[in-house]
Amino acid sequence: MANSNKRVSLLVKISIGFVLGIIFGFVIGPVVPESHVLSAYVMPFVDLVGKIFLRMLMMLIVPLVFSSLVAGTAAVGDVRKLGRIGIKTLVLYLVTTAVAIVIGLAFGNFFQPGVGMNIPAGLTASAREAKAFTDVVLDIFPTNPIASMVNANMLQIIVFALFFGVACIIAGERGKKIAEFFENVAEVMYAVTHMVMSVAPYGVFALIAVTAAKFGVAILAPFAKVIGAVYVACVLHALLVYSGMIGIVCKRSPVWFFKGIQEAAITAFVTRSSSGTLPVTLSNVRENLGISEGVSSFVLPLGATINMDGTALYQGVCALFVAQAFNIPLTLEMQIGIVATATLASIGTAGVPGAGLIMLTMVLTSVGLPIEGIALVAGIDVILDAARTCINVIGDTAVCAVVASTEGEELNS
Questions:
Q1: Do 353 and 193 touch, CB atoms closer than 8 A?
Q2: How far apart are CA 47 and CA 69, in angstroms?
Q3: Which of 61, 108, 281, 284 has the most neighbouring CB atoms within 10 Å?
Q4: In this structure, what DSSP letter does residue 124 have?
Q5: pLDDT > 90: percent of the chain
Q6: Cα distance between residue 265 and residue 140, in whole Å
């Protein structure tokens, strides 16, 4: 009876849908042109299911990101607390996330996992014209926030939400009421996200089945390159960026650091949850690294909420993968846009099931890439999620150690 209560995880269901979709597509693909029933009824229905799932994902983005960002920013509760320690923490998180996405893009360009797939882009898949760098920076700031939401301009929405959340703190009691409202909206949107992600296995099945039926076994080989690119990039990010931070700022050996937080890293890899790993992370940095409760209690929960180095790195690899699969060239300006979008969007994705998938949708949309491409990576997301969550948690602990060191705390030797 106890076993009957166990549920198969969503990621496992998505993986099953992905594999079954490929098998289904490979089996019926060659006979579709010869069968009136398949070509006129079955495949159009499967294609419709996939398109509905994509539309539901797009439906979530604007209200989910705006409400969660406003609520999360206002939850700090005191602008002064966003002073010395707060600014250090936020800057370090954003910088390490930006570096991670650059590494991801670099590995995407190096491995070129999508080259050779040659999937024709649909009507929604044409890339935008390249903009001047100054225009890219200027377009981050909205002139009309409502228009930004209508047009789903994610960078402008994120910037306005951050300003709005800080304003809720400054406004005092009245601001708290507004913040509570958006916190409730965010909770409702999390529930909506649960609903949408519950049908993700069917959506992924439909999307990949249509792709497999059209293009056959040529779509399989690149997946090994995607997994390899993400894992190698994660290891490199940890060894270069985090080890460098610990060695230069904290004056400690990287071996000391990784040994001290190894339990948290392993837990994150297994559970694939930064929030679920938080108790272990707090215990590791306090007992093994010697970081005070004051710093760790502020930096680590904030990191579990907004620090998504591994997720951002994954976005870089996957964005290049999708662009290459659809034969859409990404200019330098467009890749800079991916860095900006993935860095800022990482702030609003914590605690949301399927966050990586939703965040990838945002990144692809920001540069006009086809969101149909998410079907190509959704099935292997369970493998990629373990690595990126592990890096997310390691990044939290590295920033925590750096902040503590710059505050004059004596870390364990």
A1: yes
A2: 34
A3: 108
A4: T
A5: 17
A6: 34
Task: Decide: 316 and 103 in contact? Cβ < 8 Å.
Answer: yes
Residue 129 confidence (pLDDT) above 60: no
Token readout for 206 is 């439909």
pLDDT in tens, 264-283: 888 788 677 777 687 788 88
Token pair recorded at residue 200: 């993700």
Residue 250 near residue 405, CB atoms below 8 Å:
yes
List pLDDT tens digits, range 75-85: 656 666 556 77
Instruction: Spell out the residues 6+ positions from residue 50 whose beta carbon is closer than 8 angstroms to its own.
Output: 203, 206, 207, 209, 210, 372, 375
User: 6 and 192 in contact (C-beta within 8 Å)?
Assistant: no
**Which pLDDT band holds residue 123 (cuts at 50, 70, 90)?**
very low
H or E segment to which residue 166 belongs = helix 154-170
Helices (H), 249-373: 254-260, 262-271, 274-287, 293-306, 309-325, 332-345, 355-366
**346: Cβ contacts below 8 Å, ≥ 6 apart:** 97, 306, 307, 308, 311, 312, 359
375/394 Cα distance (integer angstroms): 28
Count of other CB atoms within 10 angstroms of residue 349: 24
239-271 confidence digits (pLDDT tens): 999 999 999 999 999 999 999 998 888 878 867
CB 400 within 8 A of CB 291: yes
Residue in this structure with the two tokens 């200019």, named with its chain if needed:
331
Q: Which amino acid is at 114?
A: G
